[in-house]
Each structure stands twice: as structure tokens, then as C-alpha cells.
Amino acid sequence: MYLKGLSDDECWLVFKQHALISDDPIEVRSQVIRLSKGLPLAAKALGGFLKKKNRRNWPTILSSDIWSEEGGVLPALRLSYYHLPHHLKRMFAYCSLFPKGYRFSPKDIVLMWMAEGFLPESEWESMENKDHSYFDDLVSRSLFEPVPYPEGCFMMHDLIHDIAQWAAGDVCSRMQIINKSSIRTRYLSISKEFFMGSPLILEKVGEEMPVGIGNLRKLQTLEPYFIIGHKSGHRIRELENLDCLSGSLFIMHLQNVKRSEDAEKARLSEKSHLEILEMHWQDVRYEGYDIATEVVNQLQPPKSLKELRFYGYIGLAFPTWLGNSSFNKMVVTKLIGCSRCKRLPPLGQLPSLKELVVENMSGITTVGLELYGAGCLSPFPSLKILKFKNMGNWEKWLTLTPSVDNNKKAFPCLEELKISRCPMLQGDIPPYLPFLKRLEIIRCNVMKVSLPSSPMLQILNIHTCQEITVNNLPLTLQVLHIEGVEIEQSAKEWELHLLTSLKKLGIRSAGSCVDSVESISSDSDGLHLPSSLTDITITGFKFLKFMSCSTFPNLTRLWIQNCPLMTVECIHNSYGLSLKSKAARGTRYIYL
């Protein structure tokens, strides 16, 4: 397929937009059209370049002898590089090391420039933490362009990449990335794609760290992870002198660390600039589960840590430091796939914890009082989000019940509670959650749901549980979805009409309690719903045969299914809603 180039007028318009001019100087227009050769990128590059020059010099620049086809690179594009300041030439040429189509963030590029010594140390602080002026300069010249995904990232057009490769040969005979990792290096990225063709190639990328990484004492960023190779567990010691590490640290294959002494040498507790620590284990046939616990006990992070994630931890018990109240900046903790642990750590003692996620922990049968922490008067004082998922053997949740003699009140700030795929769970959830706004209990098959006292609840989603009681629902409720659950009371006792803030209602397969419902309207003899509803889903009402839409002036969505007596004609439609009906696989649907 052949794509026609831009017309002269279109080419000139692109140039004007990027040169930020509104008039039409004839001598400049003809030169720009000639040099752009119908390519929008060339016109864009010319405009971005010339806008930084005095307009009186434009004709001279455009008529100079630098427009030969040297190196097979379009001259109009090469000009963008030719007139760069010297420091920007080096930074731009360095980017030739990325493969075509590579997407990068400003922060990553600036850190790499710093690591290569392109910026004087006096500018490190301002460039890393405050502004990306050099990067922005290259963007303004159309050498880097933003991409929609990932958000905030950039790339080089293929033709611009050709310019960078040409420039790299001109300036430094094709620079190679980190060809001499030095003690000054502050950024290191381990990526098979990124290092292809570089002197620093891992023999098996993704399985081992480069030898001598522990000598990079000023290293601040290590991406994407620190890998512990098979039979190389001792190399976790190479973290010992990397005290400048900041931001995130992901440690992979911790099952290969066989001696706690090696873990102790890593000195994680002294990495005071770390904010996120993620530890991964791979569950292989491994005999020393007790050793895994000893190892992780020696990997205590700094007290300044904000987020901690455990994935696939193979030890039998969590480390003694996890849950210690001295970690007063910890806001997120995720424990995922720690299947051999039978007790959760005392995370209720963490004063600033806002989000807790516990997933895939088949060893847990009881969430007991140990979770709250011995002697903690107000467990989880700051927690807002609590999620349990895929806890296949979890049966009981022992909760604290406040009384006159016992002032313990857990979860005083909790706003979201989600329990999903815990098929054995029977026990109660905490009875008093004053700030809870969202409650979801999904696929907890044997659970009899007793709703907590939650006067601010807005979203309630109960799916595939044994039973639920729905009376005394909070008046703040906006979304109510009940599916695959036996509702204890008859429909007349639900009192849903009192929920004047309710917008969305879904009742599916609610058992025999709905057999008494023959109508849905404002008539108290039927199912009485609030007029505030905009979205209604009704499934499995075997005897429903009438509905009045006049009760719901704001209705925008209606779905009725498996209600054999209902037809479109059974719906009183005083608002002229466009109701439709269809049948598929023996089931009739009525929908709006």
C-alpha cells in the first residue's frame, strides 16, 4: 500500500503549527516545502528547530549547505540534531541504544543520563527530583513524542531513531550502555530487550545479576528486580553496600537463599530511602522451610518503608518484625500465596496501615485474635481497605466485640471490605464498622451473612453465599446486588422502599422468598421499591406478572429474566420507555 505525502499547503501548515508563526513568509515557505519532501515528521522537526532561532536567520539556515543526504538520513531531520547544544547531542545520541519502538519515562531517561555522567553532580538533585528541563527541550524539538500508553511515556519515531544512530556513530562510535559500571552509577536496568548488543550482557538474562553489582555504592534505582540465581543465594550479600537504593526494590527467587547469615549481610534495615519492598519466592521442592523463616527474619526492611509485598513466601511462619508498631509509615501490606503459614502476623499494630490484601493462603483456617496484636487497644486504627481472596480452607474469623469492660474497637476507619472465593468461611465479620462504604462477599458458599452495623454503607454486593438477612439496611445505600443467596425474610419484610438513595438494584436467584412477589410498584401489596432507582435487574421471580415503571421516573436500565409470567405488555409504561423482549435458549428477557 502506498501512502501519498502531504501537499505543499498541508506541509506548510504543519510547519507553522510547530514553529509558532501565523504569517506566510514566501522565501521561508518555499524552502520548508522543498526540504520536508511531503513528510509530516520533517515539517514538524523543522518547525520545532527554527522556533528557537531568530527569524531573521531562518533564510540563511534553510539555504545552507548542510542539506546533503549524508548517511542516508533525511537532511531536514538531521538538522534537528545538527543544531542541538553539545550536552543535548550526547543525551540524544545515547538514546540510540534503545530498540525502535521502545517506550520510556522521563524519570528513567534522566537517571540514565546521570549514571553516564552527562550531568554534573551539582545538577543531580534538581534533575532527579525537581525538573526534567533537558528532556523537555528534546520534546519541544519533536525528537521525543508522547505515547498514549503507558501513561506519561515517550518514544522516538523510527526516522528520529535513525538520526540518533547516525549521531551515535558521529559522536562516540556507537556508545554502549553501561560499558563500565562504576562506583558513580546511580541507575541500573536489567532487561533482555534493553541490553541486547551491549557489552554488559547477562549470560542468562533474568536468571542472574551482573557480577560486581555490589560495588555500585551510589546506585539509587535498580530495575526491574534483584534476581537471586540458583546456587547463588550467597549473592544477596551484594545488597550490603547499596545504601543509596531508593523507591522500590523487588527481590526475586528468595528460595535460593539457604543461609540466614547471607540475608543478614544484605543490611536491608539500613536502606533508609526505600519506600516499597517486594519479596518473591518460587515454590519448588524445598526441604528447609524453617530456613526460609530464618532468612526472612534477617531481611527486616527500614522503619521508613511504606509498602510491603510478600509473594509465594514458603516459610511456616511470618517474620517476627512483620506487624511491629515501629513501622509507623507502613500504609500498604500484601500477603499473596504464602500457603504454608497457618497464622497471620499482628498487622493490627501498624498505626498507619491503610490497605491490607491477603490472598491464596490455603494454610489459614482461622483468622484469630493474633491478627489484632496483643494489647492493642484500637487495632487497625487507619485501615481503609481490607481484602481476602482465595482462602480455600478459611473457616472462622474471630472478631473483637467491644463491651463495657473491653474497649477494643477494631477497624474504626474501614471503608471497603471484600471477601471473595472463601468457600469454607462460616464465621461472622466484624459487627461494628462505622465508616464502611463498600461491602462485597462473593462465592463464600456456606457463609450465612450477618450484616455489620454500618450507617454509611453505600455499596452492598452479596454473591453465592448461603443466606442473608436484609432488614434494617442503611438508608445511605446506593447499590444493592444480591445473587445466588437465600434471603431469610419474605419480600414484604425487606423494606427496600425506605432506601431513598438507592440507584442500582439487582436481585438474582434469591430463593423461595420471592415466590410471594406478583407485582413491583408503589403498591405495598407487591415488592415496594424506591423511586430513586435508575437501574433494576430482576431474575427468577416465578410469579411476577406486573410492574409499573411510573414508580421509577429516572429509570435508564431494566433487565428482567427467568420471570415466566412477565411480558412487555405486563409493564405499565407511562413514560414511553423503549422496552424490548427477546427469547434465547428457552429464556425470555425484557430489557431497556
Detailed description of the structure:
- This protein has 592 residues and is an alpha/beta fold.
- Helix content is 19%, strand content 19%.
- It is built from 13 helices and 29 strands.
- The strands form six sheets. A 16-stranded mixed beta sheet has the order 5-6-7-8-9-10-12-14-15-17-19-21-24-26-29-28, with no helix packed on it. A four-stranded parallel beta sheet has the order 23-22-25-27, with no helix packed on it.
- Strand 3, helix 11 and strand 4 form a beta-alpha-beta unit.
- The model is unreliable at 126-131, 170-181 and 192-206 (pLDDT under 50).
SSE diagram, text form:
Blueprint: H1 8-19, H2 26-36, H3 40-50, H4 58-62, H5 75-82, H6 86-94, H7 106-115, H8 124-129, H9 133-140, E1 145-146, E2 154-155, H10 158-172, E3 187-189, H11 192-195, E4 221-223, E5 226-227, E6 247-252, H12 260-265, E7 274-280, H13 289-297, E8 307-311, E9 332-336, E10 355-359, E11 366-367, E12 385-389, E13 396-397, E14 416-420, E15 438-442, E16 448-449, E17 459-463, E18 467-468, E19 479-483, E20 486-487, E21 504-508, E22 519-521, E23 527-528, E24 535-539, E25 546-548, E26 557-561, E27 571-572, E28 580-584, E29 587-591
Parallel strand pairs: 3-4, 5-6, 6-7, 7-8, 8-9, 9-10, 10-12, 11-13, 12-14, 14-15, 15-17, 16-18, 17-19, 18-20, 19-21, 21-24, 22-23, 22-25, 24-26, 25-27
Antiparallel strand pairs: 1-2, 26-29, 28-29
Helix pairs in contact: 1-2, 1-3, 2-3, 3-5, 6-10
